[in-house]
Design brief:
- It is a single chain.
- The protein is an alpha/beta fold.
- It has a domain at about 90-155.
- About 30% of the residues lie in helices and about 25% in strands.
- It is built from seven helices and ten strands.
- The chain has helices at about 40-50, 75-80, 95-105, 110-125, 140-150, 170-185, 195-200, and strands spanning about 1-10, 15-25, 30-35, 55-60, 65, 80-85, 160, 190-195, 205-210, 215-220.
- The chain has a six-stranded mixed beta sheet with strand order 6-7-8-3-9-10, with helices on both faces. Strands 2-1-4-5 form a four-stranded antiparallel beta sheet, with helices on one face.
- A hairpin with a 2-residue loop joins strand 4 (about 55-60) and strand 5 (about 65).
- Helix 5 runs parallel beside helix 6 (about 170-185).
- It is globular and about 45 Å long.
- The two termini are about 30 Å apart.
- It is found in: Cell membrane.
- Keywords: ATP-binding, Cell cycle, Cell division, Cell membrane, Membrane, Nucleotide-binding.
- InterPro entries: AAA+_ATPase (IPR003593), ABC_transporter-like_ATP-bd (IPR003439), ABC_transporter-like_CS (IPR017871), ABC_transpr_LolD-like (IPR015854), Cell_div_FtsE (IPR005286), P-loop_NTPase (IPR027417).
Length: about 240
């Protein structure tokens, strides 16, 4: 589902963020990306949905090369990739329903399909009863659930999450992880960058550890491994 082949990324200021990355992620995998601050995790994630373009190498998502695709085709390729951010990025004047529906409106789905898919997705994330609410009427955890719903409503094969529990309280963070588990169970490939030691060590999944722009660990059921950088959320 995801391949990164000898990927390098050097920024204009000379900082080398990625240094010869090779990764193969299968359909339906759940992968944590961990590492100390400044290790290259954010660049790794951004390259996966073409917010950043590698200096060298290739990234293939669901059979399509992100590095070879023409600029005008990037929006079409991104429809195959759901993205969840730490800061939600919801449209403040639109309701929960409208925020999620927007992702289908831009690809010109019919009103009938939009209503069906939005309500099914809101039910999946536990917000069917808050479809008419505005974002500022929701808790942080509920806003993150809306963000997740918007990112998966068109059923992308890949979901990329950048610190999705970073701004959430402990109980809320565990609830968000339950949603990710359900999404994975439905066959979506999930890649999640996180500083959260307890989540990684409790919900055992594949762990890719990055240091100095290189992959230093890739374990099928790995651990967090960075005490000084961890962000424990509870004694769950």
């Amino acid at each position: 589902m995801i391949e990164m082949i000898d990927v390098w990324k050097t920024y204009p200021n000379g900082v080398m963020a990625l240094n010869g990355i090779d990764v193969h992620i299968e359909k339906g995998d759940f992968v944590y990306v961990v590492g100390p601050s400044g290790a290259g995790k954010s660049t790794f994630i951004k390259c996966m949905f073409r917010q950043e373009k590698p200096t060298k190498g290739d990234i293939i998502i669901n059979g399509k090369s992100l590095t070879k695709v023409k600029e005008r085709k990037i929006p079409y390729v991104r429809r195959q990739i759901g993205v969840v951010f730490q800061d939600f990025k919801l449209l403040p004047k639109l309701s929960v329903y409208e925020n999620v529906a927007f992702a289908l409106e831009v690809i010109e789905q019919s009103p009938k399909v939009i209503r069906r898919e939005v309500m099914e997705t809101l039910e999946l994330v536990g917000l069917k009863n808050k479809a008419r609410f505005l974002p500022d009427e929701l808790s942080g955890g509920e806003q993150q659930r809306v963000s997740i719903a918007r990112s998966i409503v068109n059923k992308p094969p890949v979901l990329i999450a950048d610190e999705p529990t970073g701004n959430l309280d402990p109980d809320t963070a565990w609830g968000i992880m339950e949603v990710f588990e359900e999404i994975t169970n439905r066959g979506t490939t999930v890649v999640m960058a996180t500083h959260n030691k307890e989540i990684v060590n409790t919900i055992k999944k594949r762990v890719i550890a990055i240091e100095g722009g290189r992959i230093v660990r890739d374990e099928k059921r790995g651990v967090y491994g960075y005490e000084e950088d961890a962000n424990p959320i509870s004694t769950h």
